[in-house]
Amino acid sequence: MHPALLVQDLRVSLRGRALIDGVSFAIDPGQRLALLGASGSGKSLTAAALLGQLPAAMSASGRLQINGVDVPLSNRRRRRAGITAIHQDPMSALNPLVRLGRQLEIPLRHAGHSASIARQQALELLASVGIEEAERTMESFSGELSGGQLQRVCIALALACRSAVLVADEPTTALDMVSQAKVLKALSLYSESTPSESAHSESGQSASAGAMLFITHDLAVAAAFCHQALVLGSGRIVEEGSMQSLVEGPKHQYTKQLVEAAHVGTDSLRSEATS
Ligand SMILES: Nc1ncnc2c1ncn2[C@@H]1O[C@H](COP(=O)(O)OP(=O)(O)OP(=O)(O)O)[C@@H](O)[C@H]1O
């Protein structure tokens, strides 16, 4: 079996300066890999390279495979190749002139669903990410929603695409704790669903459970949500392994600090709650 996502020796440079320097990893179907690292370590550039969204001045080399098929890093039409993004900035993903319901229905219709099934699934996806007034939201334009609502619509849109690989860059930062929990649940259902359960079972298009690259600064969320972790430092991998081994026995200085800070945060919250 091929990994859903294979990245080998990824390099990104800008005017001869290496910003990403030989990053390699693989994610199997149904697995979630946390991409951790200090600010400026190269997380977003790694995601941008995989998504074909690097700034024009940068060049990328290396190998990218999705479900065993090579995808040229120069190819910008990644959704067709089976990789979709959840961006930090929802406005960049949504068309302000098209009703949100229509935007959600387009990938579902492309997958071969009838208009009524596509509408039903769009409503279900909105509900799954905690949008309470799903019917009204379907009729709305992006300018009529709050930042947190828009972020959840973007997540629903990414799930509607049902790609083999989902790249989520800090997908829950703008959300309250309740919404965050709902979104993480919806994302985990996406990565765990099998062909018979998937949104595309009707058309037979979806091949297997989704793989996810999950970029976050929040170790607690990563630990609860991801199976594997990879830590970047100055564009290189400085630590990798199972999420559990990373939390229980961090080796690199940055990872140790991250684990320590997470403990300090939890301990101080606990002592505040009990004092
Ligand atoms: N458009 C750009 N032009 C020049 N350098 C850039 C550009 N974007 C990123 N870089 C540089 O590439 C490196 C990696 O940046 P990147 O945005 O990937 O970091 P990050 O790990 O995602 O950080 P953060 O957690 O703060 O989002 C940094 O040194 C940054 O200064």
From TrEMBL:
Its main location: membrane. It is a peripheral membrane protein. The keyword Oxidoreductase does not apply. Residues 5-259 form the ABC transporter domain. Pfam families: ABC_tran (PF00005). The keyword Zinc-finger does not apply. Coiled coil: none annotated. Keywords: ATP-binding, Cell inner membrane, Cell membrane, Membrane, Nucleotide-binding, Translocase, Transport. Belongs to the ABC transporter superfamily. PANTHER family: ATPASE AAA-TYPE CORE DOMAIN-CONTAINING PROTEIN, OLIGOPEPTIDE TRANSPORT ATP-BINDING PROTEIN APPD. This is ABC transporter domain-containing protein.
